[in-house]
Structure formats: structure tokens, C-alpha cells
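Example (one chain per record):
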Amino acid sequence: MMTIALLLAAQAAEVHGPSLDTFKPFVGACWRADFSAQVQDTHCFDAMYGGAHVRDRHEVQEGGKTVYAGETVYSADGPDLVFTYFNSLGGVGQGKVGAADRLLGFTGTMRPSPDKPEQSIDSEWRILDADHYEVRSLVKSPSGEAAPVLKFSRVKEPVGR
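Predicted structure:
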């Protein structure tokens, strides 16, 4: 009897694939990081289609004016968590998400705008606590320098809705 229960549990895990629960700490909230005193990036996360997907809409504002925006949709696709990204410049990106404990890893490619060459995406998000997470790009700049770590904090007011 125990063997049958274990087999059924394993089959159920295979059928359902990865879980979007990875994004549960973010859903229903907006998060903001300061690039500088005048430039902020705000991300708002929502469940889509009853939780079948997760949407992350973001806006970069300079002096209170939106200068860039994008949207990422996270989905379970077979054994993988995947993302598709679109931005206000016409750019498109896609890739995979890996999750372990309080760390999410993102790999893929992105074309910032239709006329720009494809770039690598390799970054990680580290959940610090219920109200903060850090984002670190693992792609080196052309000069070989590491990108700064951005600390996002939960904000109360929705942005761009």
C-alpha cells in the first residue's frame, strides 16, 4: 500500500511540474529599488488566470516620470519555470527560473529593442525577509565590473495600475 501511495505522489509531481509558489512572497505587492536619488524601479506582482501564471509589471521613473516600463510573465512549462519579458522599447526576452530556498536564479536572453543585439540574462534574487529582496546581475559589464546589488523594499501604493 505504501509503495502505491509513493508511486501516485511521484506521478502527481511529474504531471504538475514546477510550482509558481516560488513567486508567492512577491504576489499581491509592489516593490521598489532606488537606482539613484531621482531614479526608482518599481515592480508589482499579480497572479494571472487563477494562478496559472504570475505577472510582474515594472516602471522605471526619473523625477516622478516613467522613462521605461516592462512586463514579465512567469509560467510553468513542463519541468521548467520560464519567463517571457516585453518592454516599452519593443524589446523581448525569455529564459528559465531556478529556485532554491530563498534564492531565485534567472538565465536566458534579451534583446533590449528590436534593433539591438541579443544579450545574456544571468541574475539572482535573494529574499532577505518579508519586506525586502536583493537583485544581483551576474553578467559583467563591458569593463568587467560587477553590477551593483539593488535592494527592493515592499511599498504600499500600487504603481502603473
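Caption: Helices lie at 2-16.
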